[in-house]
Write a structure and sequence with these properties.
This protein is an alpha+beta fold and 213 residues long. It is built from two helices and 13 strands, in the order αβββββββββββββα. A four-stranded antiparallel β-sheet has the order 8-9-11-12, with no helix packed on it. A three-stranded antiparallel β-sheet has the order 2-4-6, with no helix packed on it. Strands 1-3 form a two-stranded antiparallel sheet. The structure holds 2-acetamido-2-deoxy-beta-D-glucopyranose (2 copies).
């Protein structure tokens, strides 16, 4: 047993030990980098039939405190929380919601100075086939062609805007139900016709005169 042998054993030990230490610190460093404060949350998974207000499409890491709002396409309802926050731990406060197909329609557009009734009555679950009928309060008249909406597999079939106007806002001289646009159009076309007749008359006048001679 020589000193040389002990020396080489201890050298080997220290070499091994420092390698372990090095990899330990490397691992620690990586852990701090990947989960440490300020690193944020990784991009959450996409939601089928839904979307979020995540405008920064190229980013993969979002800062702590980022708030995401999820919404589902028409005909789908969110299952689970639809607002996610990036926590200091680098996790989102929850998984993104799932968007589940639903035949139930969202509450319909609310009329100002009016309302709606449901068929079947009363208004409950706005499921497929439910029909609503808009009406206006006293002193207001409906502006818009069609006062009915039907829930079709989770979507309202008619998205045409509709509103209630004060009765005196309507021009009493206009025939009832005749949209102002068609009046403008018919006025414009009569003016055009008269102009055309005048132009024809002016053009044909010399010929008529020559015929008389
Ligand atoms: C996002 O990435 C696309 C291609 O991956 C690139 O063309 C575009 O310029 C990037 N936008 C920003 C804002 O970095
Ligand atoms: C998303 O919308 C929520 C609620 O409207 C808002 O608080 C949040 O800042 C928005 N997030 C982004 C990334 O625009």
């Amino acid at each position: 047993m020589s000193n040389g042998m002990i020396e080489s054993i201890s050298k080997a030990f220290w070499a091994h030990s420092s390698a372990t230490k090095r990899s330990f610190f490397l691992l620690l460093g990586l852990t701090i980098v990947s989960t440490g404060q300020g690193s944020g949350c990784i991009r959450p998974s996409m939601v089928q039939h839904g979307s979020t207000n995540l405008t920064d499409t190229n980013r993969s890491l979002f800062p702590v405190g980022t708030v995401l709002q999820y919404s589902c396409d028409p005909g789908y309802l969110p299952a689970g929380p639809s607002v996610l926050t990036c926590t200091t731990l680098g996790d989102w406060s929850s998984e993104p919601p799932r968007c589940i197909h639903s035949d139930v329609c969202q509450p319909p557009y609310q009329l100002e100075n009016g309302g709606y009734t449901c068929h079947p009555s009363p208004c409950g679950r706005l499921s497929h086939g439910t029909m609503i009928q808009y009406f206006c309060d006293d002193g207001y008249a409906l502006k818009g062609d069609y006062r009915f909406r039907t829930c079709q597999y989770g979507k309202w079939d008619n998205l045409m805007p509709i509103s209630c106007l004060m009765e005196q806002d309507r021009d009493p001289t206009l025939p009832l139900g005749m949209p102002a646009l068609s009046i403008v159009a018919s006025t414009a076309s009569s003016v055009a016709l008269i102009l055309l007749l005048v132009v024809l008359f002016v053009l044909l006048q010399p010929k008529l005169k020559s015929l008389h001679r």
